Each structure stands twice: as C-alpha cells, then as structure tokens.
C-alpha cells in the first residue's frame, strides 16, 4: 500500500496502473469532507512520486462514487470572510488541477452516484467509465450556489455550452444513457465491470490506441465563438433558464454569466472567475435559506428514523375509500413495494381508484421511470374489495373516507371489528381531532393520524398525528410505513388542523378578510405568486376544493374561536353555497377546462365578481406590501404558536412541514427562518400596524419577549 488514510488509499497493480480508492471509514457513502479532501491531496502527491506509472484510476470501495461535499462541514466555510472562503476553494482547485495535470492518463471509475464535487473530480480526469445504474450531476444550484471546484469550467468544454448550462442550471441527476449521449462519460458498462473497463481503457492508451494528451489539449483550450454565435447561445439559455428559475433564485443566472466568461479564459483566470461568483452566491440570503433547508431535511429524516426505530415492517396495508385520494395512497404504497387492499362500498368508486392508480403508473412508464413489467406488478399489488374479507392479515389501515367526523367515527369503529388486535388504524383526516375520532374505538392506543397531501404521488409530506392515547408503537409503525412509501413523515401532536392546516387557515383568513374589503382575488394571486408561492390563495383554494375548505374552516373556527371565527358570510362560504367547488367540478374562483394533456387549465370567469359581491362590506386600497403582510403575518404567528404549544417538535420540523405541505417559498427558508431573517422586532412592529384586524395579527407574548432580547428560532446556525 503506497498511501493509506481514513478516506483514501493508493495502491499500484503489476501493470503499473495506480488505484486511488475512495473509502471513507465509518460512513456508508463517500463524501468530500475536510478529511477526504486533505487525504486526496496527499494521495495525489504520493502518486506523483511513483516510478513507472501506466495510468491512474480513481475508484470507490463503496456502492457510490462520491455523493458530493459534506454540507454539514462546508456550511462553516460560508461564514468565513470573502478572502478566506476564496482561499478554501483555491486549495481544492489545486488538488483537482494536480489530478488533471498528472503526466499519465487518468480515469474515473464511476460505479455509483457521483454528484457535485464528486462529479467535479470525475471531470478533472481524462476519461470517465460509468455504471449503467449510476447517476452523475452538478446539483449545487438547488442550494443557491453553483459548482465551485471547476464544474463551470470543465463541463462546458466537455459537453458544450448548451448542455452544460442545462446540467448546471437544472441541477438534475443524469442517468448513464443521458450522460453518454451528451458526452459527459466515455463508456457505460455493468456496475460489476466498471473497474475492469477502466483498466482496459488505460491499456488502450498504453497501446497507443487513445491519445489522452490530445484530449487534454482540447478540454483545456478556450472555446471560440463569433460574437453573434455567443450572443445567440447565451440569450437563448438565459431566456429558458430565467423563466424557470425566477427572480428569487439567482444561482442559475449567475452560473450562466460565469460560464459565459470562463469559456474564453485560461484555466487560472477561469478559476478566479468561478470563485468570485461562488463567493457572492454563498454569502447571500438565498443560499443561506436553501442550505438551511437541506440541513433541516436531514434533521427531520433523522428524527423520523428515531421514531420508526424498531418498528415492525408493514407487509400488507389497506385503504378505506377508493376515490382520488384512496387511489393515490394505493398507487404510492404498491409502487413502492407494499401491497394494499383498497376497500369501498361502491364498485364505481373502486373502478375510479384503480383508474387513478393505473393512470399514474402509465405516466411513470411513458416517462421511462418504470418498466411496464414493474407497473403491472404494482397494479396487481392493489386488491379492490367491497368487504373486509381479507383484513384479518393487514398490518396497517389508512381511513380515507369523507371529511366528516360522524362518518369517520362509524367507519373506524366498524373497521376495528375486522382487524387483528395489533393492526394499526390510521385516519387521513386533514383537520379533525385524532383524540375525538378515537372516542368510539376499543383500542385507541393503536390509532393515530396519517395525513397525506393531495396529489399523494407528488406531495412529499405525511403528517403523523399522535392522539391522547396513541402508543409509541403505533407512531413507529406509521412512520415506518410512510418512509417505505417514499414520503417524509413529521410527527405532530393533536389539535384541530394539526400543523399544516392549522397554519394554512389563518393564511386563508387573511385572504378572506381582504376580499371582504373589496380586493380582487386575481391581484392577490399575482402578488403572492410573484412573492414566491407556487399558486395564489384563490387558486390554491380551487385546488384544495371549496367544499373541503368550507368544512375545514368550520372545524378550525370551532377549535380556535378567538381568531379563526368570522362574522357574516365570507368568500369560502359563498362559493360553497353556490356549489363552486373548484377544480373538482371545474368552477370555483376560476373556471377550468382540460388541456390537451387532460390537466385542468385555469380561465377567468366573468360571473365571479357578481357572485362574490354580497360578501364585500367595504372598500380598501391595498398595496402589494399590504397584501403580502396581511397574508404572511397570520401564517407566521400561527406557526410560532404550533412550536410554542408543542404541536410540532422543532422549528426545523415546522418549516419543512410548510415547505413540503403547502409550498411555502423555499428561498425564504420556512416561516421561522423568514422571521429570523426579518428580525422578530421588525416583524412585531409590522404586525402591530395591522392590529385592528384582530387576534390573527397579534404576536404571542413569547415572540415579543424574544424580540426584546434579539433572540432567534435558529440561534446562530446557518
């Protein structure tokens, strides 16, 4: 062994080929932490001293190559001053440049995932051999930064400007076929053959069949375009990327600007250009928010793992109710490997549920994400049923019937008589108290909430709700099942609306109050979408369903009468009264028609203003700032209440619940991060401007105390 560290080893074969093997001890994956980078630099220095080297293969002893930088360590870099951060980046560039300049051919043997800095290491090599099951990519723009170890410099020279911009700005993980097609890798082989093929490639160079030095010259040369060519390429790229990224996410557009500069620069100059852009982004508020979300996501997954530790695996599930929601749950369960019984009292409902699952599976097949064989297996894993005949061997039941407390109580009590004593019973209620629903149950300790969000296949969050008598075992199995379904579960305590809907309805309350004052819902939608929400409140209500919102609003008003009750009829009441339920019956605030793909297309309906006219009691002029404040203040205060009352376990879980559950703008980092960035004193001052609107706009006593002490919800953490 030539070099042996705790993350990197160097050995030499009899053929003269040197193996630089990445194997971070104590970890299931390789990642670039400070130790690995240091040892990589030492390993390269050791390689440079060796005689009779035929070539170097960078490979991994794990199932992945390198998953990227260890963000938990590198966030400390972002707190350094600009010059210190730039120096840190230069150190890594020095190592990667030494790899690129080794006086013999180099190959990256990509046996598994190679992302971020891991893929930038691959780009520093002359050749890349990739496993057919592997994925590569530069996902840094998802964190509000861009590749900082040569990715913006080397990738355009390798695959062209257009492709490089798409790879970097899209932040996607590329499958082997796409990577080969774009020219990012030189060969795709079976995973077991990656190292053997890499050694064979080195031998081809030794035999004179491949000219690695010529390749280096091409990849290091400036890219030459005429002024018109360059303008057309980058204006086109800016148009496409700018439309997707939006103004709140600067990293993709800064990446394009950097690529435009570095393609015509020497390597040394290009490195300084890349570093300057990286430092600017890393020190900005969006990177702080998005990196924070990444860390919070890791935290809530770790918390979920603690909840599910020791849980019995759900081998057979069941869902009660076979509508769109039931069909979505059935699809998600079966497609992820857990067979499920889908029960309803009506055959046509079962057909609808199966149709929904079949449609989703067909979409996966058509997009190449699932084979037809796997889709058929998933569909066969859904057993439609009109009775409880096979429920005696079910491990967990999801009740997904109509959102009515009496109906749910009756269905749950009936179901309990047909399941074993240790089967976990859950309710997919969105607002109704789990403790209340458990009152008629014989085994309330085996009952909890399992709240999915619609559409089930797209929304990552599942709220697992603990009632007064819910056991730890029930929570553990439910969390475990949610994880098996590919979802992110957050455990919350019981109250009307739990976390997400309890926070969402004050947001809707702010909207309804403005509508009473004569506001135009289209303007409110545009302002909030411009602010960063995926859809404005009126559009969101149409998607949720005005009938669902009406019933949930009643539950919330009863649960929190001091701030969620309202006088007179509001817009939700009115649209429910005239049966404008939103997308589900193609008319709500907007009218809907299906486009060519069968998706509902939003259209303005001229009748709506006359329909809503009886709900208007005054006329107030509202600025954009007023609209944002009146929407955001109630949401933020209610989120704080949920944390203060212990409904949710931590600020991180609260923020991620809003990000994953209702599309809170990610660039703001979540409601509590948003408060930290604004400053609690500034927020309380803003809320006091609207105190005449009632208790929804009244900060808690603890918030005011924290404001006085300049306290934050996340302390000094990034």
Automatic annotation (TrEMBL):
For whether the record's keyword set contains Oxidoreductase, the answer is: yes
Indicate the segments forming the 3-hydroxyacyl-CoA dehydrogenase NAD binding domain, all copies: 317-495
- Functional pathway: Lipid metabolism; fatty acid beta-oxidation
UniProt keyword terms in alphabetical order: Fatty acid metabolism, Isomerase, Lipid degradation, Lipid metabolism, Lyase, Multifunctional enzyme, NAD, Oxidoreductase
User: Does Protein biosynthesis show up as a keyword for this record?
Assistant: no
What InterPro entries does the annotation carry?
A: 3-OHacyl-CoA_DH_CS, 3-OHacyl-CoA_DH_NAD-bd, 3HC_DH_C, 6-PGluconate_DH-like_C_sf, ClpP/crotonase-like_dom_sf, Enoyl-CoA_hyd/isom_CS, Enoyl-CoA_hydra/iso, FA_oxidation_alpha_subunit
Q: Which EC number(s) are documented for this chain?
A: 4.2.1.17
Domain 3-hydroxyacyl-CoA dehydrogenase C-terminal, first and last residues per copy: 497-592
Q: Which residues form a coiled coil?
A: none
Spell out the protein name for this chain.
enoyl-CoA hydratase
